[in-house]
Amino acid sequence: MSFSVKNKVALITGANRGIGKAIVESFIENGVIKVYLAVRNPATTKELEEKYGDKVSTLRADVSNTESIKQLAEKANDVDIVVNNAGIMRFASPLSEDIEAALANELDINAFGLLRVANAFADILTTNKGALVQLNSIASLKTFGDISSYCASKAASYALTQGLKEKLGEKGVTVLSVHPGPIDTDMGAEAGFEGAPAATKVSEGIIEALQAGEFLLFPDELAKQFETAYQSFADNIVNAQLSV
Prior knowledge:
The chain is α/β, with parallel strands linked by helices. It is built from eight helices and seven strands, in the order βαβαβαβαβαβααβα. It has one domain (about 10-240): NAD(P)-binding Rossmann-like Domain (Rossmann fold, 3-Layer(aba) Sandwich). The protein has a seven-stranded parallel β-sheet, with helices on both faces. Strand 2 (about 35-40), helix 2 and strand 3 form a beta-alpha-beta unit. Helix 1 (about 20-30) packs across helix 7. The radius of gyration is 17 Å and the shape is globular.
């Protein structure tokens, strides 16, 4: 189902930098009338507030805290689009001494965080026939040894996104799963990726994918290589109507 962002109200977690910030800017440039900036530290959104004035509103939110996200939904009860962008990456191989702690931390933010956001906003998005956008990763499809725990958490979040597509879709809510490769962000720099695509590749891709009614978005060149290899499985398994 085609979904236009024009004249909509959006909420973006982790909106203060990187991909989240790029989504804020692209949404406003493409007609979103208001964006809630959901961040742990409200002081980090001053630049966006100065640039966009009353088109943005900062709300304190912590996706690791269920009560915080419930309060967020109470304050942002007019949203049409929720973008769950907040996430973390720890460097931990399966043989690392801290692998269990890293995995627990990443699952709490990257997977349970998605559940907290989706459940808090489900009724609002159902009423408004809105959209839920989940930032996953190519790491949800392939594990890279030095970030194994991150990959596991993103595989979990992608599995949950598929479930949300089915259950929220029955209620008229559009769900989009976004799978970028390395992007030019602080996280990308920390991982040592140089010359990575700009975050606007992701933000503009989200708008186009929603308009096209797609479930999966592979926005950059590396991600599109994954898409080519994954397409048959996605068509025949992920997007197919299978009975179990």
